[in-house]
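Example A, followed by Example B.
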Amino acid sequence: MAVRSAEATWNGTLRAGNGTMRVSSGFFEGPYTFASRFEEEKGTNPEELIGAAHAGCYSMFLSALLSNAGFTPTRIHTTAKVHLGAGPTITKIELNTEAEVPGLDEATFAEKAAAAKAGCPVSKALASVDIELTARLLA
């Protein structure tokens, strides 16, 4: 299987410093600071990148489970809200997904959505975090 990499550089002190995070493919590079992580300043932060990875992984894994069960998803859209608490510690991730899957019933969708939450590699890597799932099958 593939090995993926990313890197970060931090300059200066925690509060006054700044840094850059980038992925090895070159498709993302972004600045981050204390304020972009713990306040509401522009810039990225590790938690939103974890959220993007989790939403992407979950959507792909759900698609695989549905496809393997004989259903062809038209669209799966997932958001991830990563909660950063005291410590700092990631305390919770809220996954919200909506899927358009012709011919799929609610019960099967709920089963596959829950299985995707448990089985996607990012969920497994974040096993110590409370992951809440809201899944909605669109008509």
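Example B, a separate protein, is given below in the same form.
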Amino acid sequence: MDRSEEDEFRAFVSVRMERWRRAAYLLCHDWHLADDLVGTVVGKLFERWRRVAATDNPDAYVQRVLTNAWIDERRRPWQRESPADVVPDVVATPADATGDRDQLLRLLGRLGRRQRAVVVLRFYFDHSIEETAEILGISAGTVKSQSARALDLLRTLTQASGRKP
């Protein structure tokens, strides 16, 4: 990679890093793991930068790598272990937004991996059905059905908790 390509890579990553970190957190609910996932993505992106930079939509590539990295991480055996003493990360936010954010994260945590990935890509990143299908490597019909099931479950869970959707 020559200097101009490296500068282009750095510019691409620096503009998107925080967005990737937030997306990773929405998937895994752990800031440390989110940072690890983003690090994995940046490493893979660096290795393939020439090929990725030549594509029409490098952001879609990165989101697919991020989602797949999270799914791969969930498959690892040490994920079945639970630490006895967990100290949650606390992010300073306005008091009224904290409850909504916490409830959203709890609700997302109730979804399956694929449903959560579909919801994050469709409604957080505002991707079309086709873009989401391409990123996840699934059919558009699967995206539609997973979206519908996830939204139905989220509505049911929200109504059961007594809050309006």
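On Example B: The first helix runs from residue 3 to 28.
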